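User: Could you go from structure to sequence for me? I need the amino acid at each position, not a summary. Structure tokens:
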């Protein structure tokens, strides 16, 4: 019986180790999957930054963005051309960065995925919007109309009807005349912004804010102390509030670095983590690459694991970013977590001059 008892104890201990290891590996897989999905969503938004964004206005415009701080700190002036990408340097949770993306496609609705064009086929007929057969606009979806430029300036202009900077999509033959070309040589572009259930637009584009926040409730118990959640928050056209969507759990820091071509010769010549002083034109002319660094951990706390990362840890490159101190930010248990820095390098495809 003594021999059986010894074998039983050994088996139980082995089984406990296997269960703990299995739980840890399962949590790592979940964390990696969430990270991939969240990072790809963020990558797509940065690649498409500036998509459908007007660079000039046909008339006098007055639009609004975020209602409350801190998100209102990244608003553009109501009559100014919007900046395609804006950031706050070391202003968030744990001294993390705040990133703002402005484009028509960054919203989480089907209308924002649509675009088309409208031409006048003959002088006797009304201008007709083109239909694709799939993902066509539906009646009353909220849209903006852009007049593309011709020549070297490549400055796209927002078509307006007086002070109105948007319209509702209409069936062929009933399109609002003010938002349609009147010459056979013209073609206007149509970009979807919001569904027909949206009563009015606050701005002629959509906007998403990326930031880290630790919620008062609902924080996963497997996350290390001192970590938060990376959110993508889209701006509501109705009230200017943010609609949050959690992307990645257990995030300790986010740093953003911009690589610029300041002399417009086609080559990157400098990098910065602060573009707050750049105008909308300078941003679209100079920003050639955006690098995002996220400090997260995989799985849950493991008392048998000892992290070999240096403390403090540099989050960033080129002498920019942050020096993350685990002891002060996370606490004495930080070495029991498997920390990882995700580095994402993105070239915006819709910024041009």
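Assistant: Here is the amino acid at each position, in order:
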């Amino acid at each position: 019986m003594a021999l059986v008892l010894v074998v039983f104890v050994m088996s139980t201990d082995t089984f406990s180790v296997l269960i703990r290891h299995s739980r840890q590996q399962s949590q790592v897989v979940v964390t990696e999957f969430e990270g991939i999905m969240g990072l790809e969503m963020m990558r797509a938004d940065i690649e498409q930054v500036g998509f459908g964004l007007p660079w000039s206005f046909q008339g006098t415009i007055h639009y609004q963005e975020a209602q409350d701080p801190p998100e209102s700190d990244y608003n553009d002036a109501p009559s100014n051309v919007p900046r395609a990408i804006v950031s706050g340097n070391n202003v968030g949770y744990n001294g993390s960065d705040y990133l703002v993306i402005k484009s028509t496609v960054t919203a989480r609705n089907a209308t924002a995925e649509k675009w088309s064009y409208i031409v006048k086929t003959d002088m006797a007929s009304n201008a007709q919007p083109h239909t694709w057969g799939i993902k066509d606009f539906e009646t009353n979806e909220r849209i903006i109309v852009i007049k593309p430029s011709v020549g070297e300036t490549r400055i796209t202009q927002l078509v307006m009807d007086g002070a109105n900077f948007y319209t509702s999509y209409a069936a062929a033959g009933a399109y609002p005349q003010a938002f349609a070309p009147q010459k056979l040589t013209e073609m206007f572009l149509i970009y979807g912004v919001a569904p027909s259930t949206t009563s009015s637009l606050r701005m002629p584009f959509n906007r998403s804010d990326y930031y880290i926040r630790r919620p008062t409730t609902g924080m996963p118990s497997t996350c290390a102390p001192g970590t938060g959640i990376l959110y993508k928050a889209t701006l509501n056209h109705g009230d200017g509030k943010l609609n949050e969507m959690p992307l990645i759990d257990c995030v300790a820091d986010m740093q953003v670095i911009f690589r610029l071509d300041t002399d417009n010769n086609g080559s990157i010549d400098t990098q910065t983590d602060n573009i707050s002083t750049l105008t909308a034109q300078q941003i679209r002319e100079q920003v050639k690459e955006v690098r995002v660094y996220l400090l997260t951990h995989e799985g849950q706390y493991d008392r048998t694991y000892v992290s070999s990362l240096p403390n403090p840890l540099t989050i960033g490159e080129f002498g920019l970013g942050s020096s993350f101190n685990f002891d002060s930010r996370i606490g004495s248990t930080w070495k029991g977590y498997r920390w990882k820095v995700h580095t994402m390098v993105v070239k915006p495809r819709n910024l041009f001059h």
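One structural detail worth keeping in mind: Residues 2-47 form the longest helix (46 residues).
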